[in-house]
Specification:
Layout: H1 4-13, E1 30-34, E2 37-40, H2 41-57, H3 65-88, H4 95-108, H5 113-122, H6 127-149, H7 156-171, E3 175-184, H8 191-206, H9 211-218, E4 229-233, H10 240-243, E5 254-259, E6 263-273, E7 279-290, H11 298-313, H12 319-326, H13 330-333, E8 338-342, H14 349-357, E9 367-369, E10 372-385, H15 387-418, E11 421-423, E12 432-433
Antiparallel strand pairs: 1-2, 1-11, 3-4, 3-6, 5-6, 7-8, 7-10, 9-10, 11-12
Helix pairs in contact: 1-6, 2-3, 3-6, 6-15, 7-15
EC number: 5.2.1.8
Signal peptide: 1-22
Subcellular location: Periplasm
Length: 434
């Protein structure tokens, strides 16, 4: 989560609103002691002046000056404590990360880096001071993210409940074309027999049997003579037993068998309107892995794999046989080299590229990954609906963001309360400490 981005955009639009690196002015002095650090009077003055200038540019009303100064001072104190927390837990922002952040700031301000540099100079900051302030802002945000995350606990039941609510909201506008097969209980019939028949029909349907033909042949439901076709319906228009089973399934989904008082039911989602679906491609591949050793060089591993490919293509051996005998990936070797259906993103980049681009049934050239040398063959690809998973991911993100904001506020209050803060006596004799 780039939770520091909003902080930077609000702070850096002002370019130095919360700057602790302002160039010193004459007679600069320590204004506040914060734990082992300090805030200078020039820091407060710079933040105050910049905030007023921005408010004027945006035609924004501000509170009385004493209230405004108090708010600016409190913000500087909180920022300082967060930056101290970043140092305590060892957060380090390297130059590459910093350069990316500054480029993002310029882009969001619709400026080039040169224009941003000029704006910084106009606010009385050197570019190097500005860079270090951005670095501190990012580090503070990273520390906050890391420390607040530890306080967040999201239960699976919370995710499921919110996902159900989101599904209900989505379902309000979704229409389903539904097919239905009903197997009715007969007098004195063992209900387990009906259940077994229903499961057998589902297996046939999943293997490609025509749903309407099955409905004509077996269904005792009200739409049997229409091939089980109930037409287009929203969930609120469906029989309750249908609506209770349909939870954002995608086109082609077989649902059931499920039981009611009269028998067992099977549904098919023939088509869907108004549902934003999420589909992913899964790949079933198999491979043979050879790991180089002090004895076996990279060239030797490549040579072995090329020989295996030659033997397979020549019909002298099968991929499964050679994987069992020679592959140094024990888990897949026991399965004839097969890795099962997986999304390519689970693999390391070189392997991912191969399983995404290889034609079905073709053996790759030997290639190297961090695990060693491989040859791979793609056995199958399939599209899998992940709408339900995407909905749960969305629910998790909503819960996380909600809890993060709650916990971040509590965390800031706690570190502020536990910090030593002393406002150094001014000419008017003001002093505060805790």
């Amino acid at each position: 989560m780039k939770l520091w981005t909003k902080t930077l955009l609000s702070a850096i639009t002002a370019l130095s609103t919360f700057s602790l690196m302002a160039e010193p002015v004459e007679l600069d002095k320590v204004a506040v002691i914060v734990n082992e650090g300090v805030i200078l009077q020039s820091d407060i003055d710079t933040a105050y002046k910049t905030l007023k200038a921005n408010a004027k540019d945006n035609d924004q009303a501000l509170p009385e000056e004493d209230v405004l100064r108090e708010q600016v001072l409190e913000k500087l104190i909180i920022d300082t404590i967060q930056q101290q927390e970043a140092e305590r837990i060892g957060v380090r922002i390297d130059d590459n990360r910093l350069n990316d952040a500054i480029a993002e700031i310029a882009e969001n301000n619709k400026q080039t880096i040169e224009q941003l540099t000029a704006s910084v100079a106009a606010e009385g900051l050197t570019y190097s001071a500005f860079r270090e302030q951005v670095r501190k802002e990012i580090a503070a945000s990273e520390a906050r993210n890391a420390l607040v995350r530890r306080r967040i606990n999201i239960l699976p039941a919370e995710v499921d409940n919110l996902a159900d609510i989101l599904a209900q909201e989505t379902n309000a506008t979704v229409q389903y074309k539904v097919g239905h097969i009903q197997l009715r209980f007969n007098d004195n019939q063992d209900k387990s027999e009906v259940e077994a028949q229903a499961k057998e029909l589902v297996e046939k349907l999943n293997n490609g049997a025509d749903f309407s033909t099955m409905a004509y042949s077996y269904s005792k439901g009200p739409k049997a003579l229409q091939g089980g076709d109930w037409g287009w319906m929203r969930k609120e228009e469906m029989p309750t037993i249908f609506a209770d089973q349909i939870k954002l399934q995608n086109k082609g989904s077989i649902i059931g068998p499920f039981r009611s008082g009269v028998g067992f039911h099977i549904l098919k989602i023939e088509d869907v309107k108004g549902l934003e679906t999420v589909a992913v491609t899964e790949v079933n591949a198999r491979h043979i892995l050879i790991k180089p050793t002090v004895i076996l060089s990279d060239e030797g591993a490549q040579s072995q794999l090329k020989e295996y490919s030659r033997r397979i293509n020549a019909g002298e051996a099968t991929f499964a046989e050679l994987a069992q005998q020679h592959s140094q990936d024990p888990g897949s070797a026991a399965q004839d080299g097969e890795l099962g259906y997986q999304t390519p993103d689970l693999y390391v980049p070189e392997f991912k590229h191969q399983v995404e681009t290889l034609p079905l049934g073709q053996i790759s050239e030997p290639f190297k990954t961090v695990h060693g040398w491989h040859i791979v063959e793609v056995l199958d690809r399939r599209e899998v609906d992940r709408t339900d998973s995407a909905l749960k991911n969305k629910a998790y993100r909503i819960l996380f963001n909600r809890k993060f904001n709650e916990e971040a506020g509590a965390w800031l209050q706690e570190i502020r309360a536990s910090a030593f803060v002393e406002v150094v006596e001014t000419d008017e004799g003001d002093q505060d400490g805790n």
